Structure formats: structure tokens, C-alpha cells
Amino acid sequence: ENNAMLYKLKVVTAICEAHRIKKLSWFFQSPDLNPIENLWDEMKEAIHKKSPVPSNLKELKNM
Predict the structure, then answer these.
(1) How confident is the model at residue 23 (pLDDT cuts 50, 70, 90)?
(2) The Tc1-like transposase DDE domain covers which part of the protein (predicted)?
(3) What one-character DSSP code corresponds to residue 17?
(4) Residues contacting residue 31 through CB under 8 Å, at least 6 positions apart
(5) Contact yes or no for 46/39 (Cβ under 8 A)
(6) Contacts of 42 (CB under 8 A, 6+ apart)
(7) HSE toward the beta carbon, residue 61, CA cutoff 13 A
(8) Does 7 score more than 60 pLDDT?
């Protein structure tokens, strides 16, 4: 299976080079590639605005 992936990578790389297609180097966790991360950040912020993180056990129990 890994050999197949390596073969595919080589084929795709050769095609890109032949057609002068430049690859962009983005990180896998980049919000640009993973838009759900932006949504999670917005949701977390909205939740924390409505109910701040409890600072002690009593506040946690009262949530």
C-alpha cells in the first residue's frame, strides 16, 4: 500500500513538472486547508463569551 502511494506521488510529481505546475507548500493543519478549524475557533469563542471557564469547583458544579 505504501509503495502504491509512493508510485502515485512520483507520477503526480512528474506530471506537475512536465506541465510546469508549481506545488504550494501548506501545512496540513493550516486553517486555509482545513476551514473547520476556523469554525471551531469561532464556536469556542462564542461559548466562552456566554459562559466563562469556571475558576473553581463551586463554579463548575453550578454550571
Answers:
(1) confident
(2) 3-54
(3) H
(4) 37, 38
(5) no
(6) none
(7) 3
(8) yes
C-alpha cell at 39: 469554525
The CA R_g of the chain, rounded to the nearest whole Å, is: 22
User: What pLDDT, on the 0 to 100 scale, is given for residue 14?
Assistant: 92
CA-wise closest residue to 54 among 42, 46, 62, 44: 62
Cell numbers of 24, please? 504550494
pLDDT tens profile 40-56: 889 888 888 887 778 88
Tell me how far apart the terminal alpha carbons of the chain are, to the nearest angstrom.
49
Averaged confidence pLDDT in the chain: 80
Of 14, 32, 36, the C-alpha closest to 24 is: 32
